[in-house]
Amino acid sequence: MGISISVIFLFASLIVFWIIPAIGITKKHLVDDRFFIRQWLFPMQYWLQLLFERISGNRRIVVRIFQIMSLFITYFCGLLMLMIFSVFDGNLLKHPEAFLLFEYLLVSSIAYWFQPKAGKVYKTK
Questions:
Q1: Are 81 and 98 in contact (CB under 8 A)?
Q2: Is pLDDT above 80 for 24?
Q3: What angle do CA 24, 28, 33 make, to 5 degrees?
Q4: Number of domains into which the chain is organized
Q5: Which of 8, 39, 76, 85 could form an S-S bond across to 35 if both were Cys, CB 3.0 to 4.6 Å?
Q6: pLDDT tens digits for 68-121?
Q7: The domain containing residue 79 runs over which residues?
């Protein structure tokens, strides 16, 4: 009994969206106090955050615009992913992992909208 194409596609998505960026973060020794938990929950989006900051010269409004655009791109790529799943197996209700991956990608896009400014230290009283 072989592995179904949807399981292969799911594992490929996991490798592309989480494992490869996480390996890149550990190799470059990127530890960012502003994003520590989000950095490990959503490593691909962390890479995008660094790219957006580099492109915009750390201008917050431009970074926010890029992040909002990435949400829509993620949404449409997620719909494409769900369509690919439905081509290989018509009943998507048998594959909740496809919906979980789709939601994970949407949450990861929104997770970086709320962040402290670079260089500021927030202390509790």
A1: yes
A2: yes
A3: 100
A4: 1
A5: 39
A6: 888 888 888 878 877 777 777 667 667 777 778 888 888 888 887 776 665 555
A7: 5-111
Residue at 3: amino acid letter: I
CA 121 vs. chain centroid, Å, equals 26
Helix (H) or strand (E) holding 109: helix 96-111
**Domain membership flag for residue 98:** yes
Residue 38 makes CB contacts below 8 A (sequence gap 6+) with 45, 46, 111, 112
**Residue 35 near residue 111, CB atoms below 8 Å:** no
What percentage of the chain exceeds 90 in pLDDT?
A: 0
Distances (CA, A) of 97 to 56, 93, 109: 35, 10, 18
Which DSSP string do the residues of 11-73 spell out, in sequence order? HHHHIIIIIHHHHHHHHHT---TTSHHHHHH-HHHHHHHHHHHHHHTS-HHHHHHHHHHHHHH
All residues at 6 or more sequence positions from 19 whose CB lies less than 8 Å from its CB, including other chains: none
Residue 125 belongs to a domain: no
